[in-house]
Structure formats: structure tokens, C-alpha cells
Amino acid sequence: MQDSPRAQQIRQAHATLIHLVVQACQNPQSRQELEPVLEQAIQGGWTDLVARIRQVLDGQRDPSLLNGLDEEDNTILSSILTGLQDPATLPDPNQTADAAQAAPGLAQMIHGASRGDPQSLHWLSQMAEQMTRAGGDMARLGGIAKRLVDGERDPEVLCQGMGPQGENLVQSILSELGKLERH
Fold it and tell me: Can you tell which superkingdom this protein's organism belongs to (predicted)?
């Protein structure tokens, strides 16, 4: 089964959490390492996801655990369940984001948010917050998300202070936005 670009992005963004949960299921002693992460997730508002993860940690594997979860939580939990069955499916926690892969998903969210789609606004704000915490070009990109939603398309304005990788990502996003806006 091939993941959508958005699902791949979600899996990659949460690869560390996915690995920690699978590891804790296979080795209960490593659950201590996972607990602070789960507590932090609860503080971030992920109570439903953490409740389901705790059920998986307690041995439940039923696909009905996915019922009622939003797209992000569903993708994370299904990655955990699949990873328990086949560790080869787990995302690489050391892989850095590929700009070519990230640009279409980001452009879709920006495009949706600019049209007032509440789910796109929600996802984009969460991603912008995560990017801002990452520092460097990612923090800069998180900082210009609202400008992109508001229609700014001048790469010189948007790329101020970014290195070559950040500039390439912004250019890719602008290219994808151009395609979306033409349709």
C-alpha cells in the first residue's frame, strides 16, 4: 500500500514517536523512555491518540482502535500497528525531510487554508509551530506560512534570511501553489 504524500509526511514527522511505541511494545523496560513523550503529547492536546497508544502498549491490536481518530492520529496509530507486524514498514527516524516530497503537501495545506478550509488551517498551524521549534530554515518557513496563506508569492520576500535548502523548498512550494491556483 502506497501512502499519500501527506501520510508520508505525517509518518516522517512522527517517526521517533512511532519507533518509541513499537520499541516499548516489544520491550516493556523501554516504556519508561516513552512515558515523558506521551505526557508531553497529552499536554499538546493529543489525549485521544495517547489513550489509544496506551491500549496498544497494553496488548490491544484491533484495527477498531483507529475508529474516530483524525487523519494525523490515524496515520500515526496505523503506522504503529503496521510496524508491530512488519518492522520494515517503520519510517526512518534519522531521515531528514525531502523538499521535493514536502512541497506538494505544504502547498496543498496553504492552498486550502487560503480558501478558508478549517482542516487545512489546523494542519498548517500545527506544522508551522513544529517548524518554528526546529530552528534554521524550517523556523523561517514556519514564520512565513501566514504570508503564503495571505497570498504572498514573491520569492525574494519569502526567502529572506534562508539558506539554499530553505530557498529550494520555498521555490518548490511556490511552484506547487502555482499549479493549484491555475486549476
Answer: Bacteria
No. of helices (H) and no. of strands (E), the chain: 10, 0
Q: What angle do CA 90, 3, 159 make, to 5 degrees?
A: 95
54: Cβ contacts below 8 Å, ≥ 6 apart: 38
Are 109 and 168 part of one and the same domain?
yes
Query: In Å, how far from its chain's centre is CA 107?
Result: 14
Domain count for the chain: 2
CB 81 within 8 A of CB 65: yes
Residue 94 lies in a domain: no
Give the closest residue to 127 by CA, choosing from 10, 3, 5: 10
Q: What is the pLDDT along the chain (183 residues), one digit of tens a residue?
A: 457 777 887 887 788 889 999 999 999 888 888 888 888 888 777 899 999 999 999 999 999 999 999 888 999 999 999 999 999 999 887 665 555 567 887 888 899 899 998 878 877 887 787 777 667 888 888 899 999 999 999 999 999 999 888 898 899 999 999 998 887
Quote the domain boundaries for residue 43. Answer: 5-89
